[in-house]
Amino acid sequence: MPDRLTRRVIASGLFAIVLHAAVVAPAAAAGDAGRQRAERFGIRLLEIPENRLDDPRSHAFIVDHVNPGTTFTRRLEVFSTSPERQHVNVYPAAARVGDEGFTFAPARTGNELTSWITLDRSAVDLPPRGRVPVTATVAVPATAVKGERYAVIWAEISSASPGPAGNVALVNRVGVRAYLDVGPGGEPPTSFRIGGVTAGRTVDGQPRLVAEVGNTGERAVDLEGEVRLSEGPSALSAGPFRGTRAVTLPPGGHGQVTVLLGHDLPAGPWRFRLTLRSGRVSRTASGTITFPTAGEPAAAANDPSVPALVACAAAAVAAMVLLVVNLRRFRRRPLDGEAA
């Protein structure tokens, strides 16, 4: 059980921070932006279960599987890099994983998981460049049904700023995600598969690889990608190139993982090796690619122009076939003296 496991302190950087929102006045002054930069703060995990030390996701997020009726704790830390004192509110709020990825509910909206989470404090007063620990206790009811739940533990600073219509709330919050699976027995499997991989370019011409991915397991995945290129023009190799953003997929979900490559890469052909990871699970795809010429669109299954062109071509072919058939069936009326 997680509450019986030995835990260790993680002396790490800002692994788990998710910047959610900064609501500012449209005419905010440059001084406001400078103040926001000075009021940098964050929240991070201080411990993880011993049986998840080899899981990179557990270093950033609360990721666990427990039986109904289990109670466990996680120690977090709210910290500041500001030279001024800061008052920070901390609270759990609802989240979900769907087609849009990991999304946060507005404000302090709750869900089933947040009703199980209790924090030992609702706010902290941070000294200049200070840090304060916060303990989250998760009490899962004995009647909880099987399934994975999602939430986020927020650290939030609110202030007021003069705007064109009066005071406008400035809200900055960062948080640690929670992925909690509940059910008897062992943890459900985590798995995903890589489908087609397409070479293309961004609007400004930067080469990229786009992989179609499906979550074939029973837990949400946070996919991060890495690409290595070899056997290119003049036997060149390049990489590794790492994706800049993780893609979250729910069980049974599908999505795309994009990895941007070097601006100055030759078009190819190249041998590629794409590795995607979510926690302890990794998958690899390889093949040969050639990047399109800058300005030339890459063929993609989700390009809305592709089905239209195919439909037009199919219609044209059908019309030609029909015309040929009708010509063959057409018989001229015989002229005088001509055999029928």
Point out poorly predicted stretches. 1-38, 299-340
Estimated share of beta-strand residues: over 45%
CATH topology heading of the largest domain: Immunoglobulin-like
Biggest pleated-sheet summary: 7 strands, mixed
Tell me the distance between the termini: 95 Å
State the total count of DSSP E strands: 21
Using only C-alpha atoms, the radius of gyration works out to 28 Å
Instruction: Indicate the mean pLDDT.
Output: 80
Number of domains: 2
> Structural class of the secondary structure composition?
mainly beta
- How many helices? The count is 3
Instruction: Please identify, by name, the CATH architecture of the largest domain.
Output: Sandwich
CATH superfamily of the largest domain: Immunoglobulins
- Which outline best applies? globular
Give the helix level as a range of percent. 10-25%
CATH class of the largest domain: Mainly Beta
Q: Could you state the order of secondary-structure elements as H and E?
A: EEHEEHEEEEEEEEEEEEEEEEEH
